[in-house]
Amino acid sequence: MADLADKWTNKCLGTKASSAEFSKYDLVAKPYYQLAESSDDADAIDEEFEIAVCDLGLYLTGQAADKAKFISQLGAAMSEIGFAILVNHGIAPTLYEQAEAWITELFTTVSLQDKMKYRAARHGSVSEGYFPIHETSDIHPDLVEGWVFGRRAFRLGEEEFDAAELWPKPELEALFRQLVEAGTALFQPIMSAIIEYLGADPDLYVDRLTRPNFGQRLNYYPAMKAEHDASGAGRLLGHEDIDLFTLLPAPTIEGLQALNRAGKWVRIQAPAGSIVLNTGDYLQRISNDVLPSTTHRVSPPRDPADGKRVRVSFPLAAYLRPNELLEVLPCFENPKYDPIRVITFHTGSTAKFYGDDYAVESPV
């Protein structure tokens, strides 16, 4: 227990740090912000800003005018803050409701000893596996347990597969595969709409997002205790996603906030069954900084009763394969960034969270 207490004390220094202290790891332009999660005064919150709601159904099943309307709405939202709320996406809300129960089962019925057999480690570009509470990153004691399952963790008909190798409860693989197949089916249309908004060929990433690389993250936030409130730490560190974009089914308990371009935090309140979409670092780089990879965090809810409840979330990250190139889209005449391998970009950026030895260099 003493070791855990010491680790907590050391990591809590992260709540007093700023993003500038970790800027050497950033491979796209990033904003300045404090890592503190729950000590903001009222002026730090923009209560008037609302994340745009975009009807994905217009793009999936609509006519040309409908598609153009969605592209315009989505592009404007992503350019403004890097976040949008998607409705009419075609995924049954009951699937999301069931997933919350599956996540609770995974985290509460498997012992810590058994969870640690699947301790997260880098596979390709991405750290996959189990993250104990307080250990999502090396710089902050996040109040969340996490589990990342990559493509290899699902029976997708591409190779020999044994669920027991990556799942402590193999029967859960088939259940979560439903989430993965439903979410990854949206990767291509969303990316095509974004690329068309930027002025490039909308089919440019179709091949790359056929049988896509992804990370299905499962987050389990236990009920908060008095010592958590007093520590100044929130439920999840302010950070940016390292991917093309992330699809997050709307959480049932508040806390998700995004940092707008005015430097204030915005509460994201998405309707049940909707999907919160946000830009990641890959997309900021290839969009030549037009689409910001926006800082976001999970802070304690305003209602103390909600803080005493378990919170779960299950974001799905759209990745590219490690050896692919990240290049600024050809529609931009003056690219700010040189081409870079995904594995170099991804591991170099996330070394901020996992330590300098996590970074991998791969020549272009």
Describe the structure.
By secondary structure, the chain is α+β, with helices and mostly antiparallel strands. It has a single domain, classed as B-lactam Antibiotic, Isopenicillin N Synthase, Chain (Jelly Rolls), CATH 2.60.120.330. Helix content is 30%, strand content 18%. It contains eleven helices and 16 strands. The protein has helices at residues 2-11, 57-61, 64-80, 93-109, 112-115, 171-184, 187-198, 226-231, 281-286, 304-307, 342-354; strands at residues 53-55, 83-87, 121-123, 126-131, 145-150, 213-221, 236-239, 245-249, 256-259, 265-267, 275-279, 296-298, 311-313, 316-319, 325-326, 340-341. Strands 1, 2, 3, 4, 5, 6, 8, 11, 13 and 14 form a ten-stranded mixed beta sheet that branches. Strands 7-12-9-10 form a four-stranded antiparallel beta sheet, with no helix packed on it. Helix 3 packs across helix 7 and helix 4 (93-109) packs antiparallel against helix 6. The N and C termini lie far apart (46 Å). Mean pLDDT is 90; it is low at 1-13.
Task: Describe, in short, the structure shown.
The protein is an alpha+beta fold.
Task: Provide the fold topology.
Elements: H1 2-11, E1 53-55, H2 57-61, H3 64-80, E2 83-87, H4 93-109, H5 112-115, E3 121-123, E4 126-131, E5 145-150, H6 171-184, H7 187-198, E6 213-221, H8 226-231, E7 236-239, E8 245-249, E9 256-259, E10 265-267, E11 275-279, H9 281-286, E12 296-298, H10 304-307, E13 311-313, E14 316-319, E15 325-326, E16 340-341, H11 342-354
Parallel strand pairs: 1-2
Antiparallel strand pairs: 2-11, 3-4, 4-5, 5-6, 6-13, 6-14, 7-12, 8-11, 8-14, 9-10, 9-12, 15-16
Helix pairs in contact: 3-7, 4-6
